[in-house]
């Protein structure tokens, strides 16, 4: 059963995140944001820190962005990105989920969280930004057939997915071959579940979750789909400059999906960037992502007079 061991190890790469993350429970610097007028306790939503207290204070009069992390992630991993939003006067909060649960289950929780958020927001503009597996969950949560239109009432939603394997995770392919399920006497499904949990079949190209995406609800006015060409990217190099940790997780075929890409509300952007590089970590400034978000009006443009302060902040965060 050597192939089983190999498969398990390879599949873990499909659930990859930065390895040098240090938890930080300190509150963000929200001095450039409007004063909050409401404090919420919504399951799954929190400030983008590692604090145990999940309550989040928001300004219900201003637009808000919900950041959805990828596999092996946490709200705190988007701390720096949320801080960059705050620098530009935009509030961002995070949605956390158990990446071993069903994607459908996690999407339902996000849909409920968004619904509860809309009930307290006086501003109509809400953006959902999902990275990697978080992109799969975010898109499903905003599907028309999956959520009730009354969930968002008159709100204007914006969806952004980054490096999301919308056509399924290739290395999980054997999990999707149903004849192998019974030929292996249940060993293949067992291994798949041990590695990824309840979503083991959903992440494959054979699943209905991947094959039959539904249209997004009418409230989603725009869908910005960022695809990363991760070929030959590197996450970490040694003292001699040799790559010792690749930043390649998903190829282009895993991220493109004909049905999704052909939707008139979908704006696609392809960029040469690694899987972690695109969202950044302690050693990688996500300049390419910031540039794309600003070019498409998702993140405000940095005022010329604030450029120096912004560069100083980037140096502190990354």
- Main beta-sheet strand count, sense and barrel state: 7 strands, mixed
Structural class from helices and strands? alpha/beta
Query: Count of helical segments?
Result: 11
Uncertain residue segments: 1-13
Number of strands: 11
- Beta-strand content estimate: 15-25%
Can you describe what's shown?
This protein is of the alpha/beta class. It contains eleven helices and eleven strands. The chain has a seven-stranded mixed sheet with strand order 2-5-4-6-7-8-11. Strands 1-3 form a two-stranded antiparallel sheet. Strand 6, helix 4 and strand 7 form a beta-alpha-beta unit. Helix 1 packs parallel to helix 6 and helix 3 packs across helix 4. The chain starts with a helix and ends with a helix.
Brief overview, please?
This protein has 318 residues and is α/β, with parallel strands linked by helices. It is 30% helix and 18% strand.
